[in-house]
Design a protein that fits this description.
Blueprint: H1 8-17, E1 19-22, H2 28-48, H3 58-63, E2 65-68, H4 75-81, H5 84-93, E3 98-109, E4 117-120, E5 134-139, E6 150-152, H6 181-184, E7 190-192, E8 199-203, E9 208-210, E10 219-228, E11 259-262
Antiparallel strand pairs: 1-8, 2-3, 3-10, 3-11, 4-9, 5-8, 5-10, 6-7, 6-9
Helix pairs in contact: 2-4
Length: 263
């Protein structure tokens, strides 16, 4: 798998805005391999109740179907999350010496009765003491405002962490309402439409949102989260973190969190 060229200008854009769109990162064959793996995972989940997402309440289910750490069960996803092309992009954007996998999750936003993924920050749900971890949101379908593409508020990662949002029950404005009106007026969301095989990377503190899927077909995304090497554990209830057996302040390590780029 060849390298994806990242320029210093792109790294600067990411650092300044807290997100970036990168086009044509995967070939259509690579996209297809992930789509097939997701189909199998959805079917397995139905049959064996496997890979249950962390939340099953009906409000959350209308936001998306979330399947976590598929890489542990599906070889195509394992190959994808350890694909150095993606890990190296993450490493360069984060200006890190190395990056480890935190976890993957497939997010499928089904049509009909679909709810938005309300504005939130990711880092506040993660048991990490340091910031800097970032998500690669890979489109497995062409994504537009109509089927729930991602939107970001440029520069919002600099505003620091706020309270976590209950994604199943909050309103679109919940996170934004934590800011004075004058400040909110300066927020200028950018909706990022893109083709399957293109992706965005966003910092764990960047405010992001995805609208409801009002089309006829599912919107499939494969999200991989990377953390800079040296990131340490903070005690906080979390589906993956709880399995790690780490103590407060211990560096993330071990086979659950493989190094995917750098050393
Ligand atoms: C979504 O895909 O709807 C949201 C993804 C995210 O919150 O990172
Ligand atoms: Ni998120």
């Amino acid at each position: 798998m060849g390298e994806y060229p990242i320029t210093e200008e792109q790294v600067r854009f990411y650092q300044e805005n807290g997100y970036i769109r990168l086009e044509g990162v995967l070939t259509i064959q690579e996209v297809e391999a992930l789509r097939v793996a997701l189909d199998v995972a959805v079917e397995d989940r139905r049959r064996y109740d496997r890979n249950e997402g962390p939340r099953t309440d009906p409000g959350y289910a209308r936001v998306f179907l979330q399947m976590v750490n598929l890489w542990e069960h599906y070889p195509a996803v394992r190959a994808y999350v350890q694909n150095p092309r993606i890990g190296e992009i993450a490493r360069r954007l984060a200006r890190a010496r190395s990056v480890r996998l935190w976890h993957d999750h497939a997010l499928i936003k089904y049509p009909k009765d679909s709810k938005p993924t309300v504005w939130h920050q990711d880092w506040v749900y993660w048991p990490m003491r340091e910031t800097g971890a970032l998500s690669c949101w890979m489109a497995l379908d062409d994504v537009t405002v109509k089927n729930g593409c991602m939107s970001f508020i440029p520069g919002s990662h600099r505003l620091g962490p706020r309270d976590p949002i209950d994604l199943g029950n909050a309103t679109e404005e919940t996170l934004l309402e934590m800011f004075p009106l004058e400040e909110r007026k300066r927020f200028t969301p950018v909706a990022v439409e893109m083709k399957a095989g293109s992706c965005t990377f966003h910092d764990g503190l960047t405010f992001h949102y995805a609208g409801p899927n009002i089309t006829e077909s599912p919107r499939r995304a494969m999200v991989t989260i990377f953390m800079p090497g040296g990131t340490t554990y903070k005690k906080l209830e979390h589906l993956i973190g709880d399995r790690a057996g780490l103590s407060e302040g211990e560096e993330f390590h071990g086979p659950l969190f493989p190094v995917v780029a750098g050393e």
